Amino acid sequence: MNVPAKTILIVDDDEDLRRLLGLRLKSAGYQVVTAESGEQALAHLSITQPQLVITDLQMSGMDGLTFFRQLHQQRPALPVLILTAHGTIPSAVTALQEGVFCYLTKPFEPDELLEQVAKALLLNTEIPLASDSEQWRADIITRNSELLELLNEAKLAAASEANIFISGESGTGKELLAQAIHRASLRHEKPFIAVNCSAIPEHLFESELFGHVRGAFTGAIAHHQGLFQAAHGGTLFLDEIGDLPLPLQTKLLRVLQERQVRAVGATQTVDIDVRIISATHLNLEQRMQSGQFREDLYYRLKVVTFNLPPLSARREDIPLLAQHFLNQLAQRNHKVITGFSPEALELLVHANLPGNVRQLFNIIEQTVVLSVSPIIPAALVQKALQTKEPDLLSFNEARSRFERDYLVQLLKIAHGNVTQAARMAKRNRTDFYKLLNRHELDPSFFKE
Fold this sequence. Notes:
- The protein is of the alpha/beta class.
- The protein folds into four domains: 7-121, Rossmann fold (3-Layer(aba) Sandwich); 133-309, Rossmann fold, CATH 3.40.50; 312-385, Orthogonal Bundle (Helicase, Ruva Protein, domain 3); 395-446, no CATH class.
- Helix content is 45%, strand content 13%.
- It has a five-stranded parallel β-sheet, with helices on both faces. Strands 7-10-13-6-14 form a five-stranded parallel β-sheet.
- Helix 4 links the parallel strand 4 (80-84) and strand 5 (102-105).
- Residues 124-130 have low confidence and may be disordered.
- Residues 140-369 form the Sigma-54 factor interaction domain.
- Pfam families: AAA_lid_14, Response_reg, Sigma54_activat.
């Protein structure tokens, strides 16, 4: 199978190593761009959209770690692979902690390099496939270590009969986790019934949960089986349990203690076998201390607890989730959309998403609906995010950025012809070359 022609930027002040790496990667089917310094590499980002950066750690001028930090500010979702000598491994470990994909110790085997390159290139687009033994949590897409550890614990808890309590902000996937626990449990062949406690009117709640008999109240024209009986043998998920009024908390507690329900208007009770998973975005301990939630019910529900992290604590999952939602929504809307521009992905990774995964889905849906190209541009993401204008740069930073962008534009138009570019800029060749050197721009890079 041919390797997709993806672009890799190699940054190293050693010309021989740049050439060697370039040959190996080109022979594997990749496109290669090289830069002899971190400054030059940052300038190349204005005209090149690499899917991976390989940089040496020790370089004259800007070292590899400094280069990575500046690159990471511009392109946080771009994977970086660092090459290091044995003596600089501690620095490479520091880089790993700051977000570098991996490091290779020189000298390294060509196969090892190509293996790490292939893994890194999948960073923003591959959605990890769950193995057969992990299908129970296939709907929860993550590579976040904290969430993966939580899922391991959830699988252990699923094998028990203990009631489970899930906390977390709105939109973090509490119902998805509840469904996953049900699938991993011995009850997986029985029903999973979900009820939003805040969405049912108080006067109908008892009837919905416990059922009613015909004639129990005005409008009860037939027998109605409650949700507890509907979930018999399976799992009942009580979402937003923190919104349950106190009188109903008392009745729910009695059902959990006696494991029996009595329908409204009935004279006999019915045995039930139900596993309870409850969830809320509220702080139940505070509500319990203020008298808004029963302490005995709190401890009855909260046998095993899981706290889902917000999306802001697992930003490495945003590219995965965004691509997953994009694939779903493009198919649903009959559109050929394959991905996001790097700038669009950066906006998503940095975005403030108080609505968490649910908000991210809504943003992706809006961009898919409005997109007229196979790649989602940054402008659509920015519109969906309703982002504010970025903070003003300092005068020197703004002037430097303008100069670099202006010079890049001139060189593009002139196809790397310095004489023509200088003439358009109304500058002599000597001054123009000084400007190019200041911004580490190589005219030959722009030649057709």
